């Protein structure tokens, strides 16, 4: 289940492994994302501002629809 868009910045992105983490603006817990969740660009830089949605699943939460802000 997805909810509204949020904003944050990339704190880690490992293109070789295809995973990264976003630090949400507002101080919430860091959110993982997978490379296939990135939209409009191929890679994201650490420190880059992004907009994303949260998807909740049995294993926890993850960022989806991740795109540059």
From TrEMBL:
Keywords assigned by UniProt, alphabetized: Cytoplasm
Subcellular location: Cytoplasm
Molecular functions (GO terms): nucleic acid binding
Family matches, as InterPro entries: Cold_shock_CspA, CSD, CSP_DNA-bd, NA-bd_OB-fold
Chief site of localization: cytoplasm
Keyword Cytoplasm in record: yes
Pfam families assigned: CSD (PF00313)
Ranges of residues in domain CSD: 5-68
GO cellular component, one term: cytoplasm
Name the record gives this protein: CSD domain-containing protein
């Amino acid at each position: 289940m997805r909810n509204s868009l949020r904003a944050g910045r990339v704190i880690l992105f490992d293109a070789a492994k295809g995973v990264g983490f976003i630090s949400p603006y507002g101080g919430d817990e860091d959110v993982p994302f997978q490379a296939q969740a990135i939209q409009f660009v191929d890679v994201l830089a650490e420190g880059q501002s992004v907009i994303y949605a949260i998807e909740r699943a049995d294993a926890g939460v993850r960022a989806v629809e991740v795109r540059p802000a």
